[in-house]
User: Which sequence fits this backbone?
């Protein structure tokens, strides 16, 4: 789901983003399509089915300099978490260079393009 953000410069960092003035009402309308999220288990439904226990954290807690951006930031995050593999949505193919990840000892993989009835 896309959050209703105010127009901002492309260079704006995530922590400095602001919501649009009508964000609450826009978000509520969009959320109607996902009624199952209202339940307590909704957000973790798939994780529970796969017995996957995600640890959610802010990348800003990793102390990566703010001038490290794009592909280099993703690589820095994976390295900070001692990861060896990065899995991204299919659209990331145009954003990331596999060789850059390989040089840092990280395997770059992509999800398959979704072929289902509902776009999410």
Assistant:
């Amino acid at each position: 789901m896309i959050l209703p953000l105010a127009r901002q410069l492309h260079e704006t960092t995530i922590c400095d983003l602001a919501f649009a003035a009508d964000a609450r009402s826009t978000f509520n309308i969009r959320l109607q399509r996902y009624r199952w999220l209202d339940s307590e288990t909704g957000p973790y439904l798939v994780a529970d089915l796969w017995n996957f226990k995600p640890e959610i954290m802010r990348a800003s807690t990793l102390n990566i300099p703010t001038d490290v951006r794009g592909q280099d930031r993703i690589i820095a995050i994976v390295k900070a978490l001692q990861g060896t593999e990065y899995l991204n949505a299919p659209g990331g193919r145009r954003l990331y260079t596999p060789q850059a990840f390989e040089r840092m000892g990280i395997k770059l993989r992509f999800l398959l393009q979704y072929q289902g009835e509902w776009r999410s």
Q: What stands out?
A: The CA atoms of residues 93 and 110 lie 7 Å apart. DSSP finds four helices and two strands in the chain. The mean pLDDT is 85.
